[in-house]
Amino acid sequence: MIIKPKIKGFLCTACHPTGCEMDVKQQIAHVESQGKNPNGPKRVLVIGASGGYGLASRISAAFGSDAATIGVFFERPAVRKRTASAGWYKSAAFTQLAQDAGLYAENINGDAFSVEIKQATIDLIRRDLGQIDMVIYSLAAPARQLPDGNVVRSALKPIGESFKGATIDFNSAELRSIELEPAEQQEIDDTVQVMGGEDWELWIQALLEAGVLADGCVTTNYTYLGGEATWPIYYHGTIGRAKVDLDRAAKALQEPMASVNGKAYVAVMKGLMTQAASAIPGMAVYLSLLFKIMKSEGTHEGCIEQTTRLFNTRLFSGEVFDVDDQGRVRLDDWELRDEIQAFVKSQWSKVTNENLDEITDFAGYRDAFLQMHGFGFEGVDYDAEVDPDVPMVLAAGS
Ligand code: NAD
Asked: Is the pTM of this model over 0.85?
């Protein structure tokens, strides 16, 4: 079939397999352009491996230090006329390209919160790798089924006072005002259960009990602090409470990780267009301004630039690296530079429909949204017939 984008709100319900493969190829090319990292990890588990920061981490590990990788994700294959999800196509492309390069790559598709998927992952590590030396937790989920069977949902809401802001419609490129009422306590608690550190701790506990974490193993989880303009909806909102819980979990994990001479880190990453970020109200204006100024300053990065910098200049640089007063690794250093934030702050309330393309990089932000679904890549013929059914071998139990 011929596949074109189908945008509804902040969702695009069609994805292009060849474009998704191109995305993965470009990310690999970036990692290869940075050269091999002799200190990089060799056996890596990525939980949330099919999009955004998780996929980029997997590519940085595989192509930066020839790591064997196991990816856990929750993605949808194609069904009749419906394309697969972008993460399905990207994981299938990654697996093929990694295996072509002689690298081990296996996948588990299912609910990472469940006991069954944790067990299937442990079985696979035992069967194929014995132990692993890095666990990257990069899950961004709207809901979680708890061990007792109850399902809790995360909310993207402010806390204490309502939030008034604007979002940008991807189809019409028009600014729309949004107003969100403050979250109820239950919504805050539920968001912490979904996006906080508890499941990361459960994973590490299960992996340690199974004896599959190697001596010196490192585990990471990703957080966002962002500029002041984003605080009311992000860091001071429900999702921010979940991120505070990650800091708690990282501290709680130091002791169990020490039993294998390992460490747990939260890494603070830059604000970027990913599936998860595109759903956050009010982020479109901030990110469009951020892209504008960071591109003009030459400091703009995508997920792959961020994760490769995280590996090469921090976690696996072979040298002692700086952490902040909470023990976090900071990769949002360029985003939070004074001149970058001063620009965002000065333009924030001036954005209108008329000047959108002039003072923001909404065009670049929209391109990133389309590319996330495999559209808009040079060298891909979008008028050609393409088979939406892309097979991917999945490990037992998923
Ligand atoms: P994303 O939406 O691109 O990826 C989320 C991943 O989680 C996908 O691989 C998806 O398949 C997987 N997933 C979701 N539910 C699952 C489930 N139940 N079981 C198994 N897999 C599941 O998200 P992202 O933006 O890359 O976010 C990853 C982490 O990075 C999050 O903690 C996020 O808060 C953080 N982060 C994001 C940004 C940003 O701007 N995007 C900035 C800093 C930190």
From this structure: yes
Summarize pLDDT for 203-236 with one digit per residue, the tens. 999 999 999 999 999 999 999 999 998 999 999 9
Each as own residue / partner, the long-range contacts of residues 172-178 (CB below 8 Å, 24 or more positions apart, any chain) are 173/356, 173/362, 173/366, 174/353, 175/285, 175/351, 175/352, 175/353, 175/356, 178/281, 178/282
pLDDT tens string 156-200: 999 999 999 888 888 888 898 989 999 999 999 999 999 999 999
- One-letter amino acid at 80 equals R
Alpha carbon 251 to chain centroid, angstroms: 22
Q: Per the residue annotation, which of 137, 222, 224, 234 is the catalytic one?
A: 234
Residue 156: CB atoms within 10 A of its CB come to 22
For ligand 1, atom 8: residue with the closest CA: 48
Write phi, then psi, for 344 (nearest 5 degrees): -60, -45
Structure tokens given for 266: 């939260």
Ligand 1 atom 38, closest CA: 271
Residue of 11, 12, 53 to test ligand 1 pocket, by largest number of atoms within 8 Å of CB: 53
Degrees to nearest 5, angle at CA 52 with 20 and 42: 95
**Shortest CA distance to 265 belongs to which of 191, 206, 207, 322?**
322
Q: Which of 12, 117, 139, 328 to mutate to test the pocket of ligand 1 (most atoms within 8 A of CB)?
A: 139
Q: pLDDT tens digits for 308-365?
A: 999 999 999 999 999 999 999 999 999 999 999 999 999 988 999 999 999 999 999 9
Residue with token string 């996006």: 195
Ordered alpha helix ranges (H), the chain: 17-33, 52-65, 86-100, 115-124, 185-195, 198-209, 238-258, 275-278, 283-297, 303-310, 338-347, 356-359, 362-372
Active site residue 234: yes
H or E stretch covering 268: strand 263-268
Lining ligand 1 with CB less than 6 A are 48-54, 72-75, 87, 111-113, 138-141, 222-224, 269, 271-272, 274-277
**Which domains, from first to last, does the chain contain?**
7-142+193-274+300-334 (3.40.50.720)
d(C-alpha 225, C-alpha 313), whole Å: 20
Residue with tokens 């994990």: 253
